[in-house]
């Protein structure tokens, strides 16, 4: 009897395990992947500089006056007077330098930069960027860049052929800039935090606040709107806000999303969310093809007649209409059933775009259609 009960218990355990595995899996995500902490962000930097050492692939000074002026100003700062001198060098190029200042970037830390040609330079291969200050949106210098430019593309040209791979006028310099100024942002002294949702949604914001309150054990988090959750630092985390953030970031919630259909008409890409629903609707699709063929026929006069040989145009027009039967899409179908129903018509992505827009116009689709 005991052995029978043991076998029965093991079987029930296996059945329960299978049911648990086969049950619906919720797409939960970490709070870390759903929000950004207000104040903890990157800042864009930009600068203007010169790249030298190019093998004749630099800017044409006659066509790029800003390159000539920058070259003259740089040489004057170094004690070389070039005023009134005609310069014909092709080894210099004016460039724009961009970078991202990471959050909590400390003075002396190195960051990567991107160098892009500004004039008519053909390639930045083998060039060296001279000292270039990088400015923030407030006009202050936050980093200084310099180094050898590395590019992934190349260009080769001959008398009758030309080949270009990649973009040889854009390059990168790994660790090419040094941070000279830090952004004044003291995280440990803050008494409250604001979490900004990357995909604003009221339901998601409420779930994030509820998960944080359950973890802390008190009313610490409160959703302010569809894109912001305010978190008051608890007393036991005062002065150690980093520990609070690292623990909150690992909490998992199920994000909600609006039923949306995204259409890119240029490439024919269609992306539909899982909550897209339609009412009962019948759909038919047909293609009208008109083919116009132009030809010429030579008309010659009869023998011994006073006529001329002329070319008479001949036009042939064929009209063909390919139609499909009506397909009924039932109300409340899932995304998979909707896709299967549209695929049953045997249509391509571009015709499907028109069908989705027509269903939306009829009021039979409960989703937002966004055309890119």
UniProtKB/TrEMBL annotation:
Entry's Gene Ontology BP terms: bacterial-type flagellum-dependent cell motility
GO MF entry, a single one: structural molecule activity
Chief place of localization: other
UniProt xrefs under InterPro entries: Flag_FlgI
Signal peptide per UniProt: 1-27
Pfam families xref list: FlgI
Protein localization: Bacterial flagellum basal body
Keywords: Bacterial flagellum, Cell projection, Cilium, Flagellum, Periplasm, Signal
GO cellular component, one term: outer membrane-bounded periplasmic space
Top-level division of the source organism's lineage: Bacteria
Entry similarity comment: Belongs to the FlgI family.
Assembly notes: The basal body constitutes a major portion of the flagellar organelle and consists of four rings (L,P,S, and M) mounted on a central rod.
PANTHER family associated with the record: FLAGELLAR P-RING PERIPLASMIC PROTEIN FLGI, FLAGELLAR P-RING PROTEIN
Protein name, per record: Flagellar P-ring protein
Organism of origin: Blastochloris tepida
Gene: flgI1
